[in-house]
């Protein structure tokens, strides 16, 4: 299992450094927010087109690659301490979204599901 | 491959709704920031102890589970459009961190690697 | 007016560098997310007590001071391009919250207003 | 003083509800991250042009106005507990940026100051 292997690798890394005591869920959420902020920093001034081409510029590509790895690392450590099965949680969420965003209502629209429903009931 | 399967599931979900055109890397980073914000919102007033017990309260547990799924969904879609192999990127990052945070310097300390190095050189 | 003076200072700074073209509302929100991420990074591993004492440690204090200034700078530039009167918007929000969080229901509790109301109606 | 007046208003609001005990710097930073996430959520799928026109759509305008007020509220409460003079901190930061981003180097470019300097020294 890929996710479990990665979590195991992160768990050992933290245990060797005696870092688990910093890893409360609250602290890990905050660390995740910090890393997503670094990712936002890389994209903030880019046009949509520049953002789509970011991986063709080696220096930017390397930083983006590092930041998504950092985000993933904290997400995996967070679900590890929370004992959440991340793949299962995502699979359930997709199924919930299949119900919330039926193709007939959501096609081509970026609106939230409650707005889609409200408009559908008005019609 | 678990990550590929989840990405395929998300890709089909977006394609059926004609949502790929919203999914520039920039927009996906911003969506990721939005979801991490929702996760922060769930933990912001909790003590460290309350945060460690969050999954024992069913209503909170359900919301946390949904939010980590949302974060993961946008992260997977982001690396999909960027064509980054997330597991490989994380594995490389852990190896980089093995060098940056040697156990002898980092044990029990939450300092950044540049600070650890600077202090080590001073010593 | 203090806020206007600060906004004027930021406006001139950006105009001299021909940076206004980067300052779409979307980009400024993303820059704000980036700076709040840096602030989160400074606090992520601190205990509640350490966070309360952060300004007594000169190096940390300086970084916190810089980051809150960055957050404020992007917030002021954002409301400038959106033509929102920030002081008025905040004053209205406080008045709305006076209604949403009556002292009798909200005292000592960190719950959202919809939860407070639901419980009050159940009682 | 406008900022002081707003802080006083927020201080009274919190004191009446016995909420100051939730307001450690760490918690307020996390609350700030949560509100910036909600702001990101409002802008994530907008094109640059749509983001520039967001205040012409009354329902979106109202939500943006509320979210910037929330961000400002937590920022003011954060600097209040940290005893940072926000206007002074911003003014100093602008002066620092005047030195870091000289017009001759920074004009029309969104690069970080260390990159500007490195290129200037190479030239």
Summarize the structure.
Chain A has helices at residues 2-16, 25-43, 48-52, 58-82, 86-100, 103-106, 113-122.
Describe the 3D structure:
Four copies of one chain form a homotetramer. Chain A is mainly α. Chain A contains seven helices and no strands. Chain A has helices spanning 2-16, 25-43, 48-52, 58-82, 86-100, 103-106, 113-122. In chain A, α1 (2-16) crosses α4 (58-82) and α2 (25-43) packs antiparallel against α4. Chain A is extended, with a radius of gyration of 19 Å. The mean pLDDT of chain A is 93.
The proportion of residues forming helix of chain A, as a percent range, comes to over 70%
Radius of gyration of chain A: 19 Å
Number of helices in the DSSP assignment of chain A: 7
**Beta-strand residue percentage of chain A:** under 5%
Major interchain interface with per-chain residue totals: A-B, 66 and 66 residues
Shape of chain A: extended
Largest sheet of chain A: none
Structural class of chain A: mainly alpha
Query: What oligomeric state do the depicted chains represent?
Result: homotetramer
Number of E-state strands of chain A: 0
Q: Uncertain spans of chain A, ≥5 residues at pLDDT below 50? A: none
What series of H and E elements makes up the topology of chain A?
HHHHHHH
**Average pLDDT number of chain A:** 93
What is the straight-line distance between the termini of chain A?
A: 47 Å
């Amino acid at each position: 299992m890929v996710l479990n292997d990665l979590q195991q690798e992160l768990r050992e890394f933290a245990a060797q450094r005696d870092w688990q005591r910093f890893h409360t869920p609250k602290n890990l959420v905050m660390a995740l927010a910090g890393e997503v902020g670094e990712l936002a920093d890389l994209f903030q001034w880019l046009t949509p087109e520049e953002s789509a081409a970011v991986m063709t510029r080696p220096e930017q590509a390397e930083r983006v690659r590092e930041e998504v790895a950092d985000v993933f690392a904290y997400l995996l450590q967070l679900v590890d301490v929370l004992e959440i099965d991340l793949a299962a949680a995502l699979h359930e969420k997709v199924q919930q979204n299949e119900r919330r965003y039926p193709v007939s209502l959501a096609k081509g629209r970026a609106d939230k599901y409650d707005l889609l429903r409200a408009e559908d009931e008005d019609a």
